[in-house]
Design brief:
single chain; two-stranded parallel sheet; binds zinc ion; 9 helices
């Protein structure tokens, strides 16, 4: 089943299926918008905060316009050819950084609207930084069944700056520590399988993708304003950065642009 990671990466980067489980007929090229959130609040404190009321209006829009929020893992399986099709109008919700407003503001809406969410966490902040979630909260979120907890590296370094600052050997060591260390810590604290990664600041290049493959990640996400499809590199999949500017009309426009043929897709 498992083939060499280097070969696997090469195959994935070439945009072809990495295993012999390819379906006889090519699956339709479904593209799915993956949305990236950060913080929630009553007011827009900064560009990374969305008002909780704006987020709720987005959830309401999805549920009243035939969209299905799917777990990120389901999309990753589809992109890897392990799943033949997705529900029409599929959308994915992710949240980066593990801010405590995920617990205070977002969680009640996730439970009310019953949408699966993936959190990308950097463990150094958890139960440590005053703005961050605690391990206990993460355990409770995971136990609810609606939250999947995945990796955002160990402490959210800027890899572009670090590469300039460090020797090549020290930089490679940092990559391994950040990518493998985060996976191991999350698996140790939460018990689930961690194979998905969000790149800090969306920074990604060939060396980073190789390091992620070596550390055991099967998919990784950056920030780019288009929907994810099998045409994208599995270790640099796009996500839309969502801010409070996405009121209902802008949000509807984004979804329509992301999936122009959504109504006929299957
Ligand atoms: Zn981040």
């Amino acid at each position: 089943m498992r083939i060499s990671r280097r070969l696997c990466l090469a195959a994935m980067l070439a945009g072809v299926l990495a295993s012999g489980a390819a379906p006889a007929q090519p699956a339709p090229q479904t593209a799915v918008p993956v949305l990236a959130y950060h913080r929630f609040g009553a007011t827009v404190a900064d560009s990374m905060t969305i008002r909780t009321s704006t987020f709720e209006s987005q959830l309401r829009y999805l549920s009243t316009h035939g969209y299905t929020v799917i777990p990120l893992r389901q999309l990753v399986d589809y992109l890897a050819g392990k799943q033949a099709a997705l529900p029409p109008r599929a959308v994915v919700i992710t949240v980066d950084d593990g801010h405590r407003s995920v617990w205070d503001e977002m969680r009640p809406l996730v439970l009310r609207y019953r949408v699966p969410v993936t959190l990308f966490i950097y463990p150094s902040a958890i139960s440590n930084a005053p703005y961050a979630l605690t391990w206990q909260q993460l355990q409770a979120l995971q136990a609810s069944g609606w939250f999947d907890i995945q990796s955002h590296t160990l402490w959210h370094p800027n890899f572009k700056q670090e590469r300039r600052r460090l020797t090549p050997a020290a930089y490679r060591q940092l990559l391994r520590q950040q990518l493998l260390g985060s996976r191991q810590r999350l698996q140790q604290m939460l018990g689930g399988e961690v194979a998905l990664l969000a790149w800090p600041y969306g920074i990604v290049d060939d060396e980073l993708m190789q390091a992620a493959a070596d550390a055991g990640y099967s998919a990784a996400f950056t920030l780019a304003a288009h929907a994810a499809s099998r045409a994208d590199a599995p270790l640099a999949l796009p996500r839309y950065l969502i801010s409070d500017a996405y009121g209902e009309r802008a949000y509807a426009r984004l979804l329509e642009q992301a999936q122009p043929s959504a109504a006929s897709a299957h």
